[in-house]
Amino acid sequence: MKSYIPKDWRIWFGLSLTFLWFCFLIIYIARNVGWSSFLDLSIEEMGTFLEGAFAFLAFLWLVIGLFIQQSVLAENNEELRRNNAHSEKQAQAIAATEMNARQETFFKIAESTRRQLGSITGILFLSSQGPIGNNTYTSEELAEIWTQFASGDVEVFPRLFLTIGGEEVDWFDLFYGTEIRRRHTENILVGFDRLMELAKDCDSDNIILDSLIHSGHGWLNLRMRELHPDIKFEPIMGTDSVEYLDGIIKSSIKRS
């Protein structure tokens, strides 16, 4: 059951002074004026007496009200500050939840996209290194590689491309030598670029983007971008390792 008894000590202080003041007025009237004479006062004299008698109480409760109002305002400000802090935490939690949801969606899309890119890279590898290309790999060897790809190694073909050595290798011919190769290469470029853009939307510190750039697909994509005959691609900006390590060194120096 809700209690209506005031808890603020200033109210009790004001009530106590008010009670004492009424006691004082009663004693004052009884000793100095007399109750019979007091009741016989004219309206003007009675009003003047009551005005003076209650002026103290009016001032007292005015001051108490101001102090109580200041306390209430301070409490309201503190409550507002707590609400703002709580709202900020809620906003951060919502943002973190949204970021986690975007990351989960990205990883699901990335898995299928990387498999698609690996498949296209395999076809490109087949057209240049298989029997219909320079016959570096036999049909049996390619079948084994495709089995490895089907078992989950989606970057087996990008790694094979990157390990092709020798000065006699014409990388431009491998990627853009025929219309079919160019179409496959550009499909890889488009798919990987779209995957990177999707990674940027759910990656606040470039960890996901860096993992893409420094993967087999990423390194192969960089080489394809450099050799494109018609398009000058903007450089892919990941984490600058030198700048990152310099920041760690500076932080350790400050702590020491």
Task: Describe, in short, the structure shown.
With 256 residues, the chain is mainly alpha-helical. The chain has helices at 9-33, 35-39, 43-129, 139-150, 156-162, 171-176, 179-200, 207-213, 216-227, 241-255.
Could you characterize what this model shows?
The chain is mostly helical and 256 residues long. The chain folds into two domains: 9-81, no CATH class; 99-237, no CATH class. The protein is 77% helix and 0% strand. It is built from ten helices and no strands. It has helices spanning 9-33, 35-39, 43-129, 139-150, 156-162, 171-176, 179-200, 207-213, 216-227, 241-255.
Question: What distinguishing features does this structure have?
Answer:
0% strand, 256 residues
- Helical region count? 10
The counted number of beta strands is 0
How confident overall, as mean pLDDT? 86
Helical/strand content category: mainly alpha
- CA-to-CA gap between the ends? 61 Å
Rg result: 42 Å
* Poorly predicted runs: none
Query: What sequence of helices (H) and strands (E) makes up the elements?
Result: HHHHHHHHHH
Shape call: rod-shaped
The number of distinct structural domains comes to 2
Question: How helix-rich are the residues, as a percent range?
Answer: over 70%
Which strand-content bin applies to the residues?
under 5%
Largest sheet: none
